[in-house]
């Protein structure tokens, strides 16, 4: 495997420099591990989420849902989050630091010289205590125990509590799935590594309800589907692996979980989990709510509680993986070029339109081309600075094609199309551009980094 030039520091710097993602509340000194997405970051993450939605909704057996972030507190009792959604935590009485007890060996104490918490001569750690990760708030003006509510720590429960509604209105029967994308919140003790682990993040989760006897088959199906989703979108297959959880790692609800792991600069880490949740969730919510949550097949007279296969992905974590996997540097004419070799479907901007000079009718023609393309795909018009500088900027945001308008364009209505990865330039008639780019965006794509 060729050595990757990418580091987390380079990704963080590029995201800041080009306005993808930056620390939140920066003018107030920031708020630990919260990030804001700028223009290109929004476009990139939206493309990731749209690719996920498309993979889900192009099937006939999945429907969409958007449930509320605030839900009845009993939801979280039934799901096990009130009682069990916690990490073991230790505090240091000296430095006042708070650390995850099971991560201590990988963490650094803020005291100098920095060592693992507990290792320094002045460290004074408490016993480990369970720390619930849910953010608590109050609904309404009175702050008492009756008004307690939680920000959802996962989107999944919003799906389970709507099983009956969706079954009724969607005219689906198992096997079928309900998909949802939305914000989740966890008061992580040790967030970090940029947008890998934050306290506010977006999830893309799908609960697939199946007849119990088909659960294992669908579990295997979804592991393979989800692996292919990442590689079809350009992730190098040798940077992706499926890791089955050992029995002592499984969550309380799971009879089998496999993680899709990606080789981040911090090492192999979870990108997505695919879990066989059995009938745990529907059974719990039926018991706590008193509603029957089961499927009755009128044809066969069969009645059962479906089992659930859940592919649960993070939109921010996937965005980070696509950034990391596409990051590249190469020498061109004695200079280092930084480029994001993103799949064209994920690239924030598909086509940049650049007049070579700001005169001789070139800006006007470039604007005309911009108008020809911009309602079909994300485009950008840029006339500022040298052409080399403008190309470098587009390379850094991952724009697959640059259209350059020059003096010949005025004479024969042709332009040059520069390819981000090969750096080849072809001469194309302006009228052919919509079909050219439309075709390229629809075509399968593999990352040129594989050939490197
Ligand atoms: N419903 C199951 C569930 O929520 P999870 O493994 O806790 O499972 C699913 O979360 C995915 O959500 C993870 O694989 C990860 O991509 C993302 N995720 C979880 N916690 C996160 C955090 N603190 N920051 C960013 N992404 C997170």
TrEMBL record:
<dbReference type="InterPro" id="IPR022961">
    <property type="entry name" value="Gly_tRNA_ligase_bac"/>
</dbReference>
<keyword id="KW-0436">Ligase</keyword>
<dbReference type="GO" id="GO:0005737">
    <property type="term" value="C:cytoplasm"/>
</dbReference>
<keyword id="KW-0030">Aminoacyl-tRNA synthetase</keyword>
<dbReference type="InterPro" id="IPR006195">
    <property type="entry name" value="aa-tRNA-synth_II"/>
</dbReference>
<keyword id="KW-0547">Nucleotide-binding</keyword>
<feature type="domain" description="Aminoacyl-transfer RNA synthetases class-II family profile">
    <location>
        <begin position="9"/>
        <end position="348"/>
    </location>
</feature>
<dbReference type="Pfam" id="PF03129">
    <property type="entry name" value="HGTP_anticodon"/>
</dbReference>
<comment type="similarity">
    <text>Belongs to the class-II aminoacyl-tRNA synthetase family.</text>
</comment>
<dbReference type="InterPro" id="IPR004154">
    <property type="entry name" value="Anticodon-bd"/>
</dbReference>
<dbReference type="GO" id="GO:0005524">
    <property type="term" value="F:ATP binding"/>
</dbReference>
<dbReference type="InterPro" id="IPR002314">
    <property type="entry name" value="aa-tRNA-synt_IIb"/>
</dbReference>
<dbReference type="GO" id="GO:0044281">
    <property type="term" value="P:small molecule metabolic process"/>
</dbReference>
<keyword id="KW-0067">ATP-binding</keyword>
<dbReference type="InterPro" id="IPR033731">
    <property type="entry name" value="GlyRS-like_core"/>
</dbReference>
<dbReference type="Pfam" id="PF00587">
    <property type="entry name" value="tRNA-synt_2b"/>
</dbReference>
<dbReference type="GO" id="GO:0006426">
    <property type="term" value="P:glycyl-tRNA aminoacylation"/>
</dbReference>
<keyword id="KW-0648">Protein biosynthesis</keyword>
<dbReference type="GO" id="GO:0004820">
    <property type="term" value="F:glycine-tRNA ligase activity"/>
</dbReference>
<dbReference type="InterPro" id="IPR002315">
    <property type="entry name" value="tRNA-synt_gly"/>
</dbReference>
<dbReference type="InterPro" id="IPR045864">
    <property type="entry name" value="aa-tRNA-synth_II/BPL/LPL"/>
</dbReference>
<protein>
    <recommendedName>
        <fullName>glycine--tRNA ligase</fullName>
        <ecNumber>6.1.1.14</ecNumber>
    </recommendedName>
</protein>
<dbReference type="InterPro" id="IPR036621">
    <property type="entry name" value="Anticodon-bd_dom_sf"/>
</dbReference>
<dbReference type="InterPro" id="IPR027031">
    <property type="entry name" value="Gly-tRNA_synthase/POLG2"/>
</dbReference>
<keyword id="KW-0963">Cytoplasm</keyword>
């Amino acid at each position: 495997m060729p050595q990757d030039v990418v580091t987390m520091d380079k990704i963080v710097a590029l995201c800041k420099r080009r306005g993808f993602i930056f620390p939140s509340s920066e003018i107030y000194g920031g708020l630990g591990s919260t990030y804001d997405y700028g223009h290109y970051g929004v476009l990139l993450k939206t493309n990731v989420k749209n690719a996920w939605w498309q993979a889900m909704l192009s099937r006939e057996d999945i429907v969409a849902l958007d449930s509320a972030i605030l839900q009845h507190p009993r939801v979280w009792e039934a799901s096990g989050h009130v009682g069990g959604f916690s990490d073991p935590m230790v505090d240091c009485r000296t430095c006042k630091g708070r650390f995850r007890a099971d991560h201590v060996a990988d963490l650094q104490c803020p005291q100098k010289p920095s060592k693992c918490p507990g290792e320094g001569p002045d460290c004074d750690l408490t016993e480990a205590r369970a720390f619930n990760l849910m953010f608590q708030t109050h609904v309404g003006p009175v702050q008492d125990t009756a008004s307690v509510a939680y920000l959802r720590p996962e989107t999944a429960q919003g799906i389970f509590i709507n099983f009956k509604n969706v079954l009724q209105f969607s005219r689906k029967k198992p096997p079928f799935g309900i998909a949802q994308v939305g914000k989740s919140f966890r008061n992580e003790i040790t967030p970090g590594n940029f947008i890998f682990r934050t306290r506010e993040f977006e999830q893309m989760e799908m609960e697939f309800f199946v007849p119990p006897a088909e659960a294992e088959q669908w579990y295997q199906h979804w592991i393979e589907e989800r692996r292919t989703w990442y590689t079809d979108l350009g992730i190098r297959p040798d940077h992706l692996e499926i890791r089955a959880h050992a029995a002592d790692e499984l969550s309380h609800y799971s009879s089998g979980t496999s993680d899709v792991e990606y080789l981040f600069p911090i090492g192999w880490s979870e990108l997505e989990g695919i879990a066989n949740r059995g009938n745990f969730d529907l059974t719990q919510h039926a018991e706590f709510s008193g509603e029957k949550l089961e499927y009755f097949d009128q044809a066969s007279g069969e009645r059962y509680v479906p089992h659930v296969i859940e592919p649960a992905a993070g939109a921010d974590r996937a965005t980070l993986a696509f950034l990391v996997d596409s990051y590249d540097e190469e020498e061109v004419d004695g200079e280092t070029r930084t480029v994001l070799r993103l799949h064209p479907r994920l690239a924030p901007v598909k086509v940049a339109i650049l007049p070579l000079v700001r005169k001789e009718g070139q800006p006007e023609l470039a604007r005309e081309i911009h108008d020809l393309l911009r309602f079909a795909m994300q485009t950008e018009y840029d006339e500022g600075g040298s052409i080399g500088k403008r190309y470098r900027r587009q390379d850094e945001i991952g724009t697959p094609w640059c259209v350059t308008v020059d003096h010949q364009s005025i004479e024969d209505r042709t332009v040059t199309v520069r390819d981000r990865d090969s750096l080849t330039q072809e001469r194309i008639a302006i009228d052919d551009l919509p079909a050219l780019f439309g075709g390229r965006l629809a075509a399968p794509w593999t990352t040129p980094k594989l050939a490197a």
